[in-house]
Structure formats: structure tokens, C-alpha cells
Amino acid sequence: MVAPVLEEEAIRLLDHQLENCDLPLLFDGLANQTSLQRLSLTSNPLKVDGHKDKVFTHAVCQLTQLRELSLQRISKYFSNEMIEAIATNLPLLEELLIWGSMFNDGTLKSISKLKYLRKLAFESRADFTSDGSMGYIKTLAPGNRGLRIHIELGRTNHFSKPERDTTRRALNREIRGRLYVHLCADSMPEPESDHSEYESDRSEEECDQPEEECDQPEEKCDQSDDDNDSTKEEYEAKLRDQEAAFKAVEEKLIADHTAAIEALKAELEGRLADLQAGYGRVKGQLEAQLEATKTELGATKTTLESTNTELDTTKAEL
């Protein structure tokens, strides 16, 4: 019943939640719902085989308007390549909850592209290290302010308590973020029936008591909803301010260059006027000299003519 609805082009959903769904039947229809902003999928028991993961990932990557994405028991074979594809194609994600068995430092590197992410939960045992976590923190942007990270670690993890404390302080210092860690058995935990929030509510048989990973309860140390909702707006406002400042600098540079060009033009015009004036003076002097020479030549001609007359007279007398 769901697949035909998803495939109908006239229907555009904003929020969609499915449990115990037959995912392969939804691939084509899911990719058609490009207006979706919130998507929660749960497949129980697991129904996506490893070779179909890329097909499913491709379908999800078409939902470029997603803000919230929850994938429960969709596949335990999610690779860092698939996580990176999701992060690359869904840049507006603010919440990401994902279940799998291959999460490591490479996963954090892939997720670092999500610059508006404010809640990140790995609903299964992860293998993170201090270096990987600190490296991820260095990539966070203003849009990640108030980020809550929920992870589960097995007893044989490489992320010690002192290292987690250091990471937690760095996360809080950089973006007022919070890190919540739950120490669980090395076996893959079963997800709880309610996944609307990622809390430490497992029984003692399933999970050890959670560490005191935060100085205050989550509801106190998290940013308020209003603060979280305004983070993106604040970030966009800062971008607008930076663009305005850049434009002002650009306009000033153009004005300065224009003034310099005008000054150079005036200087060149002044020099040209001086050259033209000098040329006029030299021309006048040469014309005067030419007239004087013409006068002298006229006088000489008159003298010669007079001399010729005298010679003719003398010749006649002889």
C-alpha cells in the first residue's frame, strides 16, 4: 500500500515514518519524494542484503531536503563510502540516527561534511578513537553549535575514559556540544521500540550502567530548542555579514583604483598640454626665423638685381 503512494508524483510528503517495512519495494518510490524533510525507517527483521545497500543509499541520496534521518535495522553493512554519500547529498541534515556495525574514525570523517548537524547517534557499537573524535571536532562549523553526539562503545574499545573526558571538554569548548557514551556488550544490541530519542534506557543484561559522561543532565546541558532552531539563522546571518563586508571592501578597492586612474589621466593630460604649449612656442620661433630668412633673401635678391643692372650699363658703355 505504501509503495504506490510514494511513487505518485502528485503526492509530496514532508514527514514519513515506516516500521517493519519491505524496503526493496520502496526504493523507486522513496527517491520520488524529493520534498521529504523527515524520514524514519525501521526494518525488523533486517531485510536489506549487503549487495542492495548501495541501491538503498542512492534512493536516500535523492532526498536532498531532508533535515532528520533515522535508519533502524536497515542494514548492518553500512560502509564509510555510503555514509559519505549520504553526507554529501544531504547537506541540510540536522539529525542523523543510524544503526550498523562498521562505524569507526572514517565514519566521523565522512560525516564532517554536515555543517548543520545538531544531533548524531550511532545506535550500535562503534569503534572510535580519541584522534578520530578530536579530528572531527576540528571540522565543526557554527551551524553545528549545540551538537549532541550519542555513541555506544564495546568493552574492548580503544577510546578510554580520560580520552573521552578530553574529547567532551573540546566539544563543549568549540560549539557548546555534548558527548554521551554508553558502555555496552560487544555483541550487536537490539534497538528499542521507541527511537524518537536516543537515551540510555537499556536493561543491565543488555548494557552496563552508562558513565557519567556529562556534568549536568541532558535536558540542562543541551541548548534550548529555540537556540538550536536559531543556530542556522545565526550562521546564515554571519554569512550575510561576511558577504556585505566583502562587498564593501570590493567597492572601496574599485573606488580607490578609479580615483588613481583619474589622477593618472589628469597628470597625463597636463603633460600633454605642456607639450602642446612647448610645440606652439617652438613653431612660432621657427616661423619667425623663416620670415626673417625670407626677408634677408629678398634683400639679397634686390642687391643682385641692382648689381646686374650696373653690369649691363657698364657693358653698354664699353
Strand-and-helix sequence, N→C? Answer: HEHEHEHEHEHEHEHH
Measured between the Cα atoms of the first and last residue, the distance is 148 Å
The strands making up the biggest β-sheet line up spatially as 1-2-3-4-5-6-7
CATH fold topology of the largest domain:
Leucine-rich repeat, LRR (right-handed beta-alpha superhelix)
Dominant shape: rod-shaped
User: Uncertain runs with pLDDT below 50, 5 residues or more?
Assistant: 1-16, 187-226
Number of distinct beta strands: 7
* Beta-strand content estimate: 5-15%
Question: What Rg do the Cα atoms give?
Answer: 42 Å
Average pLDDT reading: 76
Share of residues in helices: 40-55%
CATH architecture title of the largest domain: Alpha-Beta Horseshoe
CATH superfamily of the largest domain: Ribonuclease Inhibitor
Could you say how many structural domains there are in total? 2
What would you call the structural class? Answer: alpha/beta
Number of helices: 9
- How can the largest sheet be summarized? 7 strands, parallel
Report the top-level CATH class of the largest domain.
Alpha Beta
Describe this structure in words.
The protein is 50% helix and 13% strand. With 318 residues, the chain is of the alpha/beta class. The chain folds into two domains: 222 residues, Ribonuclease Inhibitor (Leucine-rich repeat, LRR (right-handed beta-alpha superhelix), Alpha-Beta Horseshoe), CATH 3.80.10; 95 residues. It has a seven-stranded parallel beta sheet, covered by helices on one side. Helix 3 runs parallel beside helix 4, helix 5 packs parallel to helix 6 and helix 6 runs parallel beside helix 7. The chain is rod-shaped. The N terminus is likely disordered.
